[in-house]
Write a structure and sequence with these properties.
Layout (H helix, E strand, L loop, with lengths): L4 E2 L20 H15 L3 E3 L9 E5 L14 E21 L9 E14 L5 E7 H14 L10 H15 L9 E2 L4
Parallel strand pairs: 1-7
Antiparallel strand pairs: 2-3, 3-4, 4-5, 5-6
Amino acid sequence: MILPVTIYGNPVLRKTAPDISPDYPDINQLIENMFETLYQSEGVGLAAPQINLSIRLFIVDATPYGDEVPEMQNFKHVFINAHILERSGEEELFNEGCLSIPGIRENVKRPTIIKMKYLDENFTPQEKTFDGIAARIIQHEYDHLDGILFVDRLSAIRKKLLKSKLRALENNKYSVNYRTILNRI
């Protein structure tokens, strides 16, 4: 089932999401629905807060980058109760967008390497290091679990220049080709 995406201004996007347990109701169906939503909206990552659920879960499928970055060809992962243990490498700029902030793309600086622990879709503990575009996508989705949006990582001047566009999103003035949850202000 395709789920509606939460848009900028909705309070769930600013909450720190709690960990979940293996008995979380219908977790496998939720993950399946999240992937279906991701593909329909043409994204590469989706966090639970983006579908109006404040839980520590996100998914990534970087296959669209596979032509340019071969190691992303089958990079499809589920991250439950993820926590970044270490960030390293040079900080690099990359143009990011977000399904929850439609119509806005900006260059964001992030470290190129992360080490994290998480549970996979079977609740099996994992500890891995990711780099390059994988680290970039994971950090973007991970931020959603802590109530951080990519626009929060911009300079003060860039934020000021985007203020009217962000206000329009808060007032439900946007156009996308995927289902969304209207903001209630």
